[in-house]
Amino acid sequence: MADKVFENNQVSIVGEITSDFTFSHEVYGEGFYMVEVAVSRLSNFADNIPLMVSERLIDVSENYIGQKVYVTGQFRSYNKHEECKNRLVLSVFVREIEFVEDSEEVEEDIKSNQIYLDGYICKEPIYRKTPLGREIADLLVAVNRSYGKSDYIPCICWGRNARFASGFEVGGHVQVWGRIQSREYVKKINEDEIEKRIAYEVSVSKIDFLVS
């Protein structure tokens, strides 16, 4: 069962570590830590992606800033309660991590950031057009985990994929291929205060709707 669950949520990324490790939580005596990696796009922009790493996989007391790593794992979510409501927090749960050397192969965007999800539409798709006429559809996909848990992954579709996805119904079974991207936005805290935040989502390159 565990292997089957792992197959429905697969991430592989190559990125440069840009932060120190910070403690997140402990489960049965095993400590988990957060660290940021910058993953290059073809446009020379970098996505800053948070990793959740077990202290059993790497020495979290060391400084690895500037080093490049290859990571495989799963894109996971949890609800963080703040400001009287829940906020969806996303990170890559690392199963394997290894250091890699710079090379042209590593720098190829398609190889440095890949995700596959097999899940279910859990919110009505939001379809819209940009001022320039580009079609976009926002999806929220629930991906089952073991022990009755699920991860809720925001996905964004473009063009033909957006038109296709706009007709999906809640509960529909989908398979998604794409990349994890980060996006800065401004959150209004109150009348006098704003805060810069980063949202994470899957930029969809291919999507299939499965009929039972």
Please give a structural write-up.
The chain has about 210 residues and is mostly beta strands. Helix content is about 10%, strand content about 65%. It is built from four helices and twelve strands; from the N terminus they run αββββββααββββαββ. Strands 1, 2, 3, 4, 5, 6, 7, 8, 9, 10, 11 and 12 form a twelve-stranded mixed beta sheet that branches. The relative contact order is 0.17. The model has no long low-confidence stretch (mean pLDDT about 90).
Keywords:
mainly beta; globular; 212 residues
Strand-helix topology:
Blueprint (H helix, E strand, L loop, with lengths): L1 H6 L1 E9 L4 E6 L2 E11 L5 E9 L13 E15 L2 E15 L4 H4 L1 H4 E9 L4 E4 L5 E10 L5 E9 H7 L7 E18 L2 E18 L2
Parallel strand pairs: 4-6, 10-12
Antiparallel strand pairs: 1-3, 1-5, 1-7, 2-3, 3-4, 5-6, 7-9, 7-11, 8-9, 9-10, 11-12
- Proportion of helical residues: under 10%
Biggest sheet character? 12 strands, mixed
Distance between the termini: 20 Å
Q: Identify the overall geometry.
A: globular
Q: How much strand?
A: over 45%
Number of helical regions: 4
Structural class: mainly beta
Helix and strand element order: HEEEEEEHHEEEEHEE
Radius of gyration: 18 Å
**Overall average residue pLDDT:** 89
Total number of strands: 12
Regions with little confidence, pLDDT below 50 for 5+ residues = none
